[in-house]
């Protein structure tokens, strides 16, 4: 009655947590030197269960936790030998010991074991007790439970064990250091023979089956699963942070709760990213990278690297570091401009300028790269393509910094932003993950979702405790997003060259498909982020201590990593065009003056506009003389007779 009142004992067995890639591959596990994978009885070979009962506890289904006849026999045998020669513990007793108790031989431990044994028998079926036993017993070499042991010794699931393999495994728990076939195949074979003999005597197998099992060659693997598949350590670090901070799973459960964590990792993308980083950044360089790739349609993070080598530095720069994005921040500014009446053809003058702000109390004097200025008006499309800083600051001061801050938050930028003129040039720190996900939002037509690392989590019993539910939120206007995307293809279009070249000119010869993107740089940071309709990727490179780049070739590392990754990740895939939604019109424009291009314009660039906002004036600068005179006369007549 007392033990019934105590009720069902709490069972909590440490088990390895496994991490799966999007394709179902195991990419890693967490454990503390103990490999444990819980399986149900129907996932265990019947040969193993029969062998275990034959050698450990033949009367398991008959007794109530204690085999008193066996205990008496063991006592007699021990007295005759004057030492401990025979065990008498039932499977239930051993399970109780494995779950709750140390293996010392004090009377206190023995009484506690008896108490737990009674409670197990009162509250659980024999099948549940047997299942618990085969999942917790130690089989040597760090393997706890039959699934881990089967994988270690034979490289197969416990359900696939042959009679020969099962009878050999069943003999190991008696003394793993003695009967492990890795330690001594001779001892293991002797123990196996004893078990097969018992099975034959009990009529479980025939003499012929016994002989076949004894002669079957044993092919040992002697290797734990997943030891060579500890893939994507920075990615798994990010996944564990999501489990803890967003799903509120405690660290103990994450490490030893036997979870099955199904992630969004694309092993191909991850391998390409890691190999590219290794190839591009010299081994003797202290430059560190941060890399993220995201599938825009789902916002699934397909690859992530937070540094050159996780073993050397576990600091995850992709999700932890806050660095200045430089001009990679400008797409947010120009989206805000599109929302406030600008078009790709809006003209502003680029020239050396000092800006007064805070009611004239402060002066800000930005400069372009190499102090190159157009010294004339230029279009917004051209300003983005050549990364003109004067145009950007003028735009910001027209809109007000607070407008850009609100817009950046809409894109998912989570770090604090300072409302100063230099914000247009990316002087407030951001996280790489936020930036890449913001660009993925552009690639997804303005549909926002937080970066997704995990699609499903199951507990040790196979119950789903978390499943991701897509929550696409239309944060950006689809038409203006399409216009921004088209503007962002301009960094690779040399038709938009002005006094400066477009910033992606060096990349164009190696491109096999259309890309949209933006680079950015400061004295200490170099970025490249861009996308196709299928994939978004972003790279940051810099020094952890914030030192300036002094080697010119290091300044191109981010662009090289990005382009190599994108080309390899898209290899064999059809090149897709960016969408142009209804209500958006394409107009051939002279990029130097923002007017509708004529057939005589030496350079034209297609630009997108919301219908009704496209330019109305035609370019007349390149018309033949007679044509110009006629246009001038028509214009004079129109002014004289406007009706």
Automatic annotation (TrEMBL):
Residues 291-560 form the Penicillin-binding protein transpeptidase domain. SUPFAM superfamilies: beta-lactamase/transpeptidase-like (SSF56601), Lysozyme-like (SSF53955). Residues 24-199 form the Glycosyl transferase family domain. Keywords: Carboxypeptidase, Cell membrane, Cell shape, Cell wall biogenesis/degradation, Glycosyltransferase, Hydrolase, Membrane, Multifunctional enzyme, Peptidoglycan synthesis, Protease, Transferase. It comes from the Bacteria. Transmembrane segments: none annotated. Its main location: membrane. It catalyses: Preferential cleavage: (Ac)2-L-Lys-D-Ala-|-D-Ala. Also transpeptidation of peptidyl-alanyl moieties that are N-acyl substituents of D-alanine; [GlcNAc-(1->4)-Mur2Ac(oyl-L-Ala-gamma-D-Glu-L-Lys-D-Ala-D-Ala)](n)-di-trans,octa-cis-undecaprenyl diphosphate + beta-D-GlcNAc-(1->4)-Mur2Ac(oyl-L-Ala-gamma-D-Glu-L-Lys-D-Ala-D-Ala)-di-trans,octa-cis-undecaprenyl diphosphate = [GlcNAc-(1->4)-Mur2Ac(oyl-L-Ala-gamma-D-Glu-L-Lys-D-Ala-D-Ala)](n+1)-di-trans,octa-cis-undecaprenyl diphosphate + di-trans,octa-cis-undecaprenyl diphosphate + H(+). InterPro entries: Beta-lactam/transpept-like (IPR012338), Glyco_trans_51 (IPR001264), Glycosyltr_51/Transpeptidase (IPR050396), Lysozyme-like_dom_sf (IPR023346), PBP_transglycosylase (IPR036950), PCN-bd_Tpept (IPR001460). This is PBP1A family penicillin-binding protein. It comes from Bacillus kandeliae. The lineage of its organism: Bacteria, Bacillati, Bacillota, Bacilli, Bacillales.
